Amino acid sequence: MLEVGTKAPDFSLFTTPDQRIELNQLKGKRVILAFYPADWSPVCGDQMSLYNEMLKFFHKQNADLIGISVDSKWCHLAFSKDRNLHFPLLSDFEPKGAVSKLYGVYDDTTGESKRALYVLDEEGYVRWKYLSPVGINPGADGIMDALDEMNSKK
Amino acid sequence: MSKLRPDVTSNDHIQGNVNASVELVEYGDYQCPHCGRAYPIIKKIQKKMGDNLKFVFRNFPLTEVHPDARMAATAAEAAGAQGKFWEMHDIIFENQDSLNYEDLMGYAESLGLDMDQFEKDFNSSNYSDRVDIDFESGLRSGVNGTPGFFVNGEKYNGIWEDKELLTFLQNKVQELQHH
């Protein structure tokens, strides 16, 4: 994974069939990057649904949340609709896993992103990172602590 | 390792022996089918463990997937204002598929609550705020889905079905007795 203190590399990925998001456009905001293996995990408290409930906590901290997996934009569209998600899911689809590789969180054996979190500051520097065992939803306490710590260091 | 934050206080909804050496906290969602399955299991555990267990319920409604969950949680809190939190908690879990506003009002009535007061509390933000405070404490404690369990402040990541959780708790009692 990228080390804390490094500049997060820019990328541009599809979030809907006709819209891209570029990381550099989010300058001035904190960004939470949540890499995850795949849409459609079969439990109701899955990671993306949990984060979906937390957007107001993140926004209070001037932070935007972005989910990233290798699923296609069409798959994201269906998943997002089904779970009623209110944050963007980015499609690391072509070339497959390129951004996940850039961030050191691609799993070559499964061909999916690992379950990994980054918190970037307003200038796009990595301030916190976490790699979770792939089968375990890491929850949100780590992200919330990281955001709080950034406030205290200001 | 995720830890319960904040610790249990007298403001929490507590069942069983408040001085028990083993404390089980559940973060639950009234509309979550897994929590519904856990409900009788917890009852059984409470019965088996008796005075050796203190049980606490905190709200963790996932409102985007369970649109009635927060309202149901608020209803239980409002019933709690009249000393009937656990009665409402039980009725709600026993009727998970019927949790609209009228259903909840009906359950309150069946418990013999002062309905004018209940309706006022149910619709006031005091009790829904309490639900939200529970939810945030769950996030900070590292709850990653429901039901989320903590045993003596530590997140329990094991299986809660069958006898696993009971065995874990009973072992904990033993362990603490030997110290």
TrEMBL record, chain A:
Residue ranges of domain Thioredoxin in the record: 2-152
Superkingdom of origin: Bacteria
Keywords: Oxidoreductase, Redox-active center
Pfam families: AhpC-TSA
InterPro entries: AhpC/TSA, Peroxiredoxin_AhpC-typ, Thioredoxin-like_sf, Thioredoxin_domain, Tpx_Peroxidase_subfamily
Descriptive protein name: Redoxin domain-containing protein
Taxonomic source organism: Pinibacter soli
From TrEMBL, chain B:
Domain of life: Bacteria
Domain Thioredoxin: 1-174
Record PROSITE patterns: THIOREDOXIN_2
InterPro entries: Thioredoxin-like_fold, Thioredoxin-like_sf, Thioredoxin_domain
Gene3D superfamilies cross-referenced by the UniProt entry: Glutaredoxin
PANTHER family the record matches: GLUTATHIONE S-TRANSFERASE KAPPA, SLR0313 PROTEIN
Family: Belongs to the thioredoxin family. DsbA subfamily.
Full protein name: Thioredoxin domain-containing protein
Taxonomic source organism: Pinibacter soli
